Amino acid sequence: MRVDPIKNKSTVVKIINELEKESERNVILFKIGIYTGLRIKDILKLKVKNINGNTLEIQQSKTKKYKRIQLNDDLRNSLKKYIEGKDKEEYLIKSRKGLNEPLSYTQAYRIIKKAIKKTRLKGNYGTHSLRKTYGYALYENNDLSIVQGALDHDNQVTTLKYIGVTEEEINKATMNINFY
């Protein structure tokens, strides 16, 4: 099933505020998704050792490509506080069941859906919305080729569809073209 990106920045902040009521772990889950564009499968397998100062390093599950992601200030500061005193082999997004088990995909989905539902956001959202939100936010201030590269897409048409750029947005941009 297709899911939507979260396009409104104030809605993203509302979701983070909802997640803060639950746990720091849930906030970190959400922030890693919206700030790195990693797929949920890769987020859930992250361990403390994948965080290296200002970067996050991982071999992606789907593409098998090694990726080194520069962390922005918000995510870097949140992670620094979150991993303080934790063992390098500890999962970042741990299940509350077991000693050192990653959170399940199903539980991650429930966490994200619950927080989004509380904001009364209309549309279809799930864990993959985090990656799409990253792509859309990147698109707002960058050339489409940057977004395409960040998401590892083969072509820009795929990227535009993926991040949910609508005909209305294209028309609005067209109306803003002015040569005088």
Question: Mind explaining what this structure looks like?
Answer:
The N and C termini lie far apart (44 Å). It is globular, with a radius of gyration of 17 Å. A hairpin with a 6-residue loop joins β2 (55-59) and β3. It has a domain at 9-131: Intergrase catalytic core (hpI Integrase, Chain A), CATH 1.10.443. Strands 1-2-3 form a 3-stranded antiparallel sheet, with no helix packed on it. α2 (24-36) packs antiparallel against α4 (73-83) and α6 packs antiparallel against α7 (144-151). It contains 9 helices and 3 strands. The chain is mainly α and 180 residues long.
Brief summary of the model shown:
This protein has 180 residues and is mostly helical. 53% of the residues lie in helices and 7% in strands. It has a domain of 123 residues: Orthogonal Bundle (hpI Integrase, Chain A), CATH 1.10.443.
